[in-house]
Amino acid sequence: PYHYFTQPPKEETPLMRFGTMVHAGKFEPASFFDRYEIMPDYADQVRKPTGEKYSNPRGTNAYKELVATFIEDLKKRAPDKIPVDPRDVGQMTSILTALDRDTKAKQFFDDRGGTQYEVSIVWIDQETGLTCKGRVDCLHPGMSVDFKTTTALRTYEWEIIKRGHHRQGAFYCEGLKVLTGNPFWHAIVAASSQGPIYAVRSA
Question: Coil, strand, or helix at residue 143?
Answer without folding.
Answer: strand
